[in-house]
Amino acid sequence: MQLSDLTMLNFVPVALALVGSVSAATIKASPYAGSATADVFPPTGTAANPSLFPPESVVGFPGVTATGSEPELATATIYPFNQQQAGSFPLVFPEPHGEDKSSTFNIKNYWGNLSPWRSLSSADYDLPNASPLVPEGCDVTQIQLLYRHGARYPTTGAAPANFAQKLINATRLGNLSFSGELTWLASWKYELGAELLTPFGRSQNFLLGVEHRQLYGHLLNNFTEAGTIPVFRTQSQDRMVKTAENFAAGFFGVPEYLNEVNIEIIVESPGVNNSGAPYEVCNNSNIATRGSIGSSVASKFAVNAFNSTLARLNAQTTGGLKFTPTDAIGMLQLCSYETVALGYSKFCELFTQQDFLNYEYYYDLSFYYNNGPGSPVAAAQGKAYLQEFLARFTQEYPSPFSALNETFDNSSTYFPLNQSIYADATHEVVVLDTLTAFNLTALFAGPPLSPTGDQSQNSFSASKLVPFATHFTAQVLSCPAYQPTKQMRFIVNDAVVPLHGSYPGCPADENGLCSFDTVVDVLKKRMAEIDYDYDCFGNYTAKAGVDYNGRAPK
Ligand SMILES: *[C@@H]1O[C@H](CO)[C@@H](O)[C@H](O)[C@H]1NC(C)=O
Ligand SMILES: *[C@@H]1O[C@H](CO)[C@@H](O)[C@H](O)[C@H]1NC(C)=O
Ligand SMILES: *[C@@H]1O[C@H](CO)[C@@H](O)[C@H](O)[C@H]1NC(C)=O
Ligand SMILES: *[C@@H]1O[C@H](CO)[C@@H](O)[C@H](O)[C@H]1NC(C)=O
Ligand SMILES: *[C@@H]1O[C@H](CO)[C@@H](O)[C@H](O)[C@H]1NC(C)=O
Ligand SMILES: *[C@@H]1O[C@H](CO)[C@@H](O)[C@H](O)[C@H]1NC(C)=O
Ligand SMILES: *[C@@H]1O[C@H](CO)[C@@H](O)[C@H](O)[C@H]1NC(C)=O
Ligand SMILES: *[C@@H]1O[C@H](CO)[C@@H](O)[C@H](O)[C@H]1NC(C)=O
Ligand SMILES: *[C@@H]1O[C@H](CO)[C@@H](O)[C@H](O)[C@H]1NC(C)=O
Ligand SMILES: *[C@@H]1O[C@H](CO)[C@@H](O)[C@H](O)[C@H]1NC(C)=O
Ligand SMILES: *[C@@H]1O[C@H](CO)[C@@H](O)[C@H](O)[C@H]1NC(C)=O
Questions:
Q1: Which one of 65, 132, 264, 458 is at 20 to 30 Å from 510 when CA atoms are compared?
Q2: Is 169 in the pocket of ligand 1 (CB under 6 A)?
Q3: Is residue 462 part of a domain?
Q4: Is 501:509 a contact under the CB 8 Å cutoff?
């Protein structure tokens, strides 16, 4: 790393001298360029000064206050859905290339895991009458929430930075010029950071916290009675910590969240067991013929998917720069990333509706085969959360462990089993691994995705299941009208997932409910059939085009 940092620093100023379009911001923001601090806020050495500007606790005189009852919107009659344009304020989106203002096509819904989350309809999963509201006559007694961080900058080494680098390289060769739709590219700068939550991303997790307080605030009475506060968990990457903090800030308020919840941060690093980052220990997760078959099939699909747009764009540049299919993905990702980081992106205007559909399909392929039913290691990686959820359902510590850490998962301090609300933050790949491990096959209806790009039968959509701030909820309910009265169901981004097709013993129920004991039995069987050691460490070959139910072929 150090070496390439130096190489870049020597190299970029040459480009600067030649064109003037590559600014200090490019150098600073390049993941290769180290940590220049030119316009990074806050300036080094600064901090708020509480002795000059004392806090509320010092100033006093807060006025009269009174807290109200805990909300329980989940048992109300109207649900706060996050639909279509909602949930993306204050981002702005242009129409795709070739469409006018009357177009209803919403580009942000075709960005795979880079889409902001939106509410899904239970009807899409064949439960037309189900609502995420607690069914009439039932009470919710426990929820387990698994949620993803909000919008972030690109991960290190992702396509956008490579695209920027390619432009810098081309600039260095000289003669580079842009015309027509691309004129602005001559003065464009790469301004994205890496890995961190963006301001919009923070708002997503904050709002998720607010929403869950409104829906389930009354479950806090459980802690009040016990005289204790909850443990919410996350991982150690900066964005994961900030995700849990923003969620807690929304849920408990600022600054109350500092005192009303214990946020547990579990290390994510190669070799460390952690349900939120199982790929760090599941060796096959990164093998081309096992855990990452989705990445290769998606790249292959992209080679031919953007022909006409690439031809159009290449006709508007001269000077030896030729945009490739990889650049099409790079620019589409810049569209997504610049929008969620900066609020708007000119790159979005370059692509047609069909391009966005193909971009989504690129992600559909990638996720279906890397972390969904088409992956031989998805269930194994989701098994850790499966074990943890089950432990909390049954109040029995997991044994034996699959990628769990004894220090954390066998301890009533770090892994309490008696909470009414659990909230775990994680990554999108892990959310999908978990849905696969839970055998929620209604989410994966239809034949395995066509590796060659026939989208006519595809109903799997990455932007629905793994967007920024995606969330999976298990509701435990008490329903006097049901027999037995202890019921349970699963909800993904507000859509109730039907269980009767994949949970033997669960009847067809219009609310997606099934007996708690039956669900627990099915999950135990599922846990037993997922062979963590073989799937993660075995020597086998998997291929795209097969629904493996997330497990390795034997
Ligand atoms: C840019 O040029 C450098 C030095 O020649 C090369 O190592 C690198 O691969 C190029 N990067 C891209 C994205 O073209
Ligand atoms: C859970 O159990 C622990 C240890 O027995 C106890 O201290 C705590 O108050 C309990 N929490 C709740 C919410 O019941
Ligand atoms: C388990 O957690 C402890 C405490 O953080 C850590 O020191 C240890 O390396 C972890 N072990 C594994 C195998 O994850
Ligand atoms: C998994 O990979 C790690 C790191 O390369 C290695 O130390 C470990 O032995 C591997 N585990 C198995 C079971 O192959
Ligand atoms: C795109 O171009 C390639 C190479 O010229 C060609 O083989 C392929 O059929 C084209 N794909 C489409 C969808 O037009
Ligand atoms: C730049 O333009 C000059 C003069 O037209 C030409 O000789 C040279 O080959 C061009 N360089 C590239 C990289 O296109
Ligand atoms: C980590 O997970 C492996 C695989 O399930 C297990 O064998 C090992 O005991 C775990 N280590 C710790 C410290 O929990
Ligand atoms: C968890 O703790 C119990 C009781 O201390 C112990 O019997 C059991 O072996 C532990 N489980 C694991 C997997 O370490
Ligand atoms: C809180 O809820 C959990 C899960 O339903 C339960 O195990 C625990 O006993 C409850 N604690 C109190 C004090 O009601
Ligand atoms: C998982 O779902 C499939 C149907 O999609 C079903 O055939 C299978 O029995 C289920 N597995 C378990 C462990 O229940
Ligand atoms: C894995 O299996 C293949 C095919 O049977 C074999 O050629 C290869 O040597 C094996 N690799 C390892 C590491 O055992």
A1: 458
A2: yes
A3: yes
A4: no
Integer angstrom CA distances of residue 140 from 151, 173, 227 = 30, 64, 21
> What is the reported pLDDT for 19?
28
CA distance 389 to 487: 15
Would you say 426 and 148 are in contact if contact means Cβ atoms under 8 Å apart? Answer: yes
Task: Indicate which atom in ligand 9 lies nearest the CA of residue 141.
Answer: 5
Rounded CA separation 430/435 (Å)? 9
In 3-state terms, what secondary structure has residue 281? coil
Measured CA to CA, the distance from residue 542 to residue 374 in angstroms comes to 9
SS3 of residue 240 by DSSP:
helix
- One DSSP character per residue, 124-167 reads GGT-TT--SSPPTT-EEEEEEEEEE---BPPPTT-HHHHHHHHH
Closest residue (by CA) to atom 12 of ligand 5?
A: 304
- The neighbouring-strand residues paired with 497 are 490
Token pair 């996720």 in the structure block, residue = 367
Rg (CA), the chain: 24
Residue 127 in domain: yes
What is the DSSP annotation of 457-471?
Answer: T----HHHHSSBT-E
Residues 6+ apart with CB under 8 A from 99: 105, 352, 353
387: Cβ below 6 Å to ligand 7?
A: no
Residue nearest to atom 5 of ligand 6 (CA): 175
Domain residues for the domain of 524 are: 3-30+116-153+197-290+367-537
pLDDT in tens, 259-275: 999 999 999 999 999 99
- Ligand 4 site residues (CB inside 6 A) read 283, 537
Coil, helix or strand for 246? helix
Nearest CA to ligand 9 atom 9: 418
Write down the pLDDT at residue 38.
53
Question: Which regions in the chain score pLDDT beneath 70?
Answer: 1-38, 84
pLDDT in tens, 49-76: 899 988 888 988 888 888 888 888 988 8
Give strand pairing partners of 146.
424, 472
What is the CATH number for 489?
3.40.50.1240
What is residue 56's predicted lDDT score, i.e. its pLDDT?
87
* DSSP-H helix ranges across 103-237: 159-173, 199-216, 221-226
353 in a structural domain = no
**Measured at the alpha carbon of residue 195, what is the angle toward residues 189 and 200, in degrees to the nearest 5?**
75
Residue 71 lies in a domain: no
Ligand 8 touching residue 396 (CB < 6 A): no
Question: What is the distance between the alpha carbons of residues 166 and 227, in angstroms, rounded to a whole number?
Answer: 59
pLDDT of residue 497: 98
Round to whole Å and give the CA distance between 377 and 523: 18
Residue 230's SS3 state is coil
Give strand ranges (E) for 293-397: 317-318
Q: Structural domain tally of the chain? A: 1
